[in-house]
Write a structure and sequence with these properties.
Mean pLDDT of chain A: 86
Order of helices and strands of chain B: HEHEHEHHEEEHEEEHHHEEHHE
Largest interface: A-B, 48 and 60 residues
Shape of chain A: elongated
Number of helices of chain A: 22
Radius of gyration of chain B: 18 Å
Low-confidence stretches of chain A: 282-308, 323-339
Number of strands of chain B: 12
Strand content of chain A: 5-15%
Number of helices of chain B: 11
Strand content of chain B: 15-25%
Oligomer: heterodimer
Number of strands of chain A: 11
Largest sheet of chain B: 10 strands, mixed
Shape of chain B: globular
Structural class of chain A: mainly alpha
Distance between the termini of chain B: 53 Å
Largest sheet of chain A: 2 strands, antiparallel
Chain lengths: 537, 307
């Protein structure tokens, strides 16, 4: 293929990927179904790999497809399938247009940094937290940025237009300031790196770039500089955003090459071509360069494997106690164990265990698979999912939890489980969701208005879809809530609506391991009143 | 204030027109009852639409309530993400029939809304009301954001002295209240007065400040319902107000129409099998003079349709 044609293809595919990925996260009108979003995100490497590790089958085979593609043509993923990579190219392009002409000289690869990034992610996963991956995986970083910036911005615009009654206002979650701060920080970092150093991120801290770089070294087709054609004009080196072309030595570091082919298009003499690896060596290559290339060009990961495992060991040695510490920091809420009926123990909506999304199975499973991409948060129709700060412990920073101050989890929805690309939230049907217990409601009679004020209420029972919270007769013709824990699914409707302040009278405490609630067999018919019955008034 | 004056003028003109057409056989619709006017019309043994048509005819037709060019708001109960068979929401066919009658009577616009408890778009859809209303020519209005509400004073109320009330209700000419008869864990039954909680933004205030008193206080909201229609075609007998399944519903085939919310709620309590005085808000509203809680003083027209 002609390099210019490829470049155009790259731009078109990149634009489509960027557009669809942004839509998946910033879709305020809920136009994109979970299935469509999953299809769009199929080739995203890190979530797909996490899914595959859990045996998710073809639905997570995107990472295998990407590896095959990389073994054939190099880092095509980085060139056009990675939303963050495309965003960096776009940022650099805009900066270039507005006067900042970039001139990027060749720089030696920072292999140690790349190995460290992969090691940190792997160690984190082994230690039970996807936290390092959450901040290094480009898809997850892109998700955080879009969900925390573009999405609220679109929501705000929607509300501005809706004020004139032209369109309906959408429900938007309150802005999560911590996430927005982190996202803006990441955006700034990525943007500055892109403007001044091209694809610096991709060849230093990006674990996907490192893994794919390992494969692209052995790609079947690779870019080669034809010695005969080269007039040492340095054009290729200057345009290379990966800074991986050493034009003096006619050398390209294929582990860092992001396959943009800017070099090939810039070469006036068409001296850079995609050449098969199998058909012997470079065309017209001098033996001198070949020997020179071999040494610094060493394989990225294989020689480092012993180092890698040592680092892995060290990293886990640090990570495991750190995680344990973060975990332990929040287990202090169940203070007064054996309280009586008028329980005064200090469980409130802020010191309880946070409630995980239905399908997350357990805190351990969730924390080791969720990269906090915010896709479920963005696509929760009830806005109950919110990025956590310390609700799941520090190891779960920005992973979603159910915030019952904002909303509650619907009985008729399992969107988050259907949309989660990593399998951190396992796919469940709506039917299934109705018996998944994510938490248990605890009622504090001493705080309830029925008792404290002697007036009727029943708001909690009103919102309970299973009637686990139901009203039973009490004094003076009043009714008071009672909880049947077997029926409770932890949806949080009761806690959300409870009018008691500062501490609500009914609190849903999250379960570390999800359970099955008792399924209620319900009749499918209305009862029928006899037609002969006369008017009762 | 100019605006308020004009609105008051229109209101009083409309009210006078209603009063005249009601009292005077000359102005009454041809179907109107000679023995009327009735405080309450109860219909039984029919579908929601035939019962409504018989009931509204006995009240002199929709023309008695809606004049040409008026803006109408119909407020059904659309609180929960439940299909019509689980009668947690007002019957969609009934809502559509009301919208049609209002438009036929010359309404310039018929708006339908409720401050839902579940996600509003899903609830509007699942209840079947969004489609029924749109097909009938009405408009579904959102009620999901605080800025769609305006704070008003309720000087005659006892506890609910001020409330954020939906602007559509405050700005309409005719307000029609269409609750569904259902069981309620806290208030015992959800009826006309309780349905008005759906025009208010902050419902937690009701629950934490004497629910029954606040419900009764809604009788003194600035816009009073010109007509109330209790949908008792299907009634929710248990697990209310949300309901769990169809078995919670009873196919009762009743409907009650009238202007007095207190009388209607008292009658509905009897239909459910309770005494009116069992409902705290009926008792309070009766004592506050918002309507007649004593059914012996209510002039009731009873219609049984041939099934």
């Amino acid at each position: 293929m002609n390099a210019a044609v490829y470049r155009r293809l790259r731009i078109v595919v990149g634009a489509i990927v960027l557009g669809f990925c942004a839509l998946a996260f910033a879709d305020i009108g809920n136009w994109v179904s979970a299935q469509v979003a999953r299809a769009v995100l199929w080739p995203q490497f890190a979530p797909s790999l996490l899914g595959l590790l859990q045996g998710a089958g073809w639905i997570s085979a995107g990472c295998i497809a990407v590896i095959v593609l990389t073994l054939l043509f190099g880092r095509i993923y980085c060139a056009m399938l990675c939303p963050l990579g495309v965003l960096m190219d776009l940022t650099a392009k805009i900066a270039g247009r507005t006067g900042r002409k970039r001139k990027l000289p060749y720089r030696a690869g920072k292999t140690w940094l790349r190995v460290l990034a992969v090691t940190a992610c792997a160690a984190g996963l082994l230690a039970g937290t996807a936290l390092p991956l959450a901040f290094l995986d480009p898809y997850s970083v892109f998700g955080k940025i879009t969900a925390a910036t573009l999405r609220p911005a679109l929501g705000w615009i929607n509300h501005l237009i809706a004020a004139s009654k032209l369109i309906n206002p959408v429900d938007v979650s309150p802005v999560a300031w911590a996430t927005a701060g982190v996202a803006l920080g990441l955006l700034g970092l990525v943007g500055v790196a892109a403007v001044f150093r091209g694809r610096l991120w991709c060849n230093t801290v990006c674990p996907v770039g490192a893994v794919l770089g390992f494969f692209s070294k052995h790609a079947l087709f690779r870019l080669q500089i034809a010695d005969a054609a080269c007039v040492a004009c340095s054009m290729c080196e200057r345009v290379c955003p990966a800074q991986c072309i050493d034009f003096r030595n006619h050398k390209i570091d294929h582990s860092r090459c992001v396959m943009c082919l800017d070099c090939a298009t810039s070469c006036k003499r068409s001296g850079i071509t995609l050449t098969s690896n199998r058909k012997g060596k470079k065309p017209a290559q001098s033996p001198d360069t070949a020997t020179k290339c071999a040494e610094p060009d060493g394989s990225l990961l294989s020689p480092h494997l012993p180092t890698a495992s040592r680092r892995l060991f060290l990293a886990s040695a640090i990570a495991i106690p750190a995680v344990a510490l973060a975990e332990g920091g929040r287990g202090k809420n169940k203070g007064g164990g054996g309280c009586g009926e008028d329980c005064r123990c200090n469980l409130n909506q802020h010191n309880k265990h946070a409630v995980l999304p239905p399908g997350a199975k357990s805190l351990a499973h969730f924390q080791s698979h969720c990269t906090a991409c915010q896709l479920c948060v963005a696509n929760c129709p009830d806005q109950v999912l919110r990025p956590s700060i310390t609700q799941h412990g520090l190891a779960g920073f920005l992973q979603p939890y159910q915030d019952f101050d904002v909303s509650f989890c619907s009985y008729n929805c399992s969107n988050c489980s259907q949309i989660c690309p990593t399998g951190a939230i396992q796919p469940i049907t709506v039917e299934d969701r109705r018996t998944v217990r994510t938490g248990t409601a605890e009622f504090f009679r001493g705080r309830c208005v029925v008792k404290t004020e002697g007036t009727s209420c029943g708001a909690c029972s009103e919102h309970c879809p299973t009637q686990a919270v139901h009203m039973v007769p009490w004094k003076n013709g009043l009714t008071i809530p009672e909880v049947d824990p077997d029926l409770c699914i932890g949806c949080g409707g009761c806690e959300f609506i409870c009018p008691v302040r500062p501490d609500k009278a009914i609190i849903v405490n999250g379960l570390k391991i999800h359970e099955r609630a008792k399924a209620v067999v319900l009749g499918q018919e209305n009862t029928i009143r006899k037609k002969e019955e006369e008017f009762p008034f | 204030m100019m605006n308020m004056n004009r609105r008051r003028f229109i209101e009083s003109t409309a009210a006078t027109a209603v009063a005249i057409s009601w009292q005077n056989p000359l102005f009454a619709a041809p179907e109107a009852d000679a023995e009327g006017p009735w405080d309450l019309v109860a219909v039984r043994n029919g579908g929601p639409v035939p019962m409504f048509e018989a009931g509204i005819a006995a009240l002199g037709g929709m023309k008695a309530f809606v004049k040409k060019g008026q803006k109408v708001v119909v407020k059904p109960n659309i609180a929960w993400d439940q299909p019509p068979e689980v009668p947690a929401n007002t019957n969609p066919e009934l809502v559509a029939a009301i919208v049609k009658h209002c438009l036929e009577a010359g309404a310039s616009k018929v708006t339908v809304f409720d401050h839902t408890c579940h996600n509003w778009e899903r609830t509007y859809k699942t209840s079947g009301i969004a489609k029924a209303v749109t097909d009938a020519g009405g408009v579904m209005a959102p009620a999901n954001l605080e800025d769609q509400y305006r704070e008003v004073e309720l000087p005659e109320a006892k506890t609910l002295k001020k409330a954020l009330i939906h602007k559509e209700m405050l700005e309409c000419d005719v307000f029609i209240n269409v609750p569904v008869l259902k069981h309620h864990g806290g208030a015992k039954l959800s009826l006309c007065m309780k349905n008005l909680m759906g025009v208010v933004w902050d419902r937690r205030f009701f629950h934490s400040n004497n629910l029954d008193q606040c419900i009764a206080d809604m009788c003194f909201a600035p816009k009073k319902p010109a007509l109330n229609i209790i949908d008792a075609y299907r009634i929710l007998r248990k697990n209310g107000p949300q309901g769990r399944a169809k078995e919670d519903g009873e196919l009762a085939q009743y409907q009650m129409l009238g202007t007095d919310m207190v009388a209607l709620d008292a009658a509905a309590a009897k239909l459910y099998g309770m005494k009116p005085e069992d409902l705290g808000y009926v008792k309070i509203a009766g004592e506050m003079g918002a309507g007649k809680a004593d059914l012996s003083k209510v002039k009731i027209k009873r219609i049984t349709l041939d099934a």
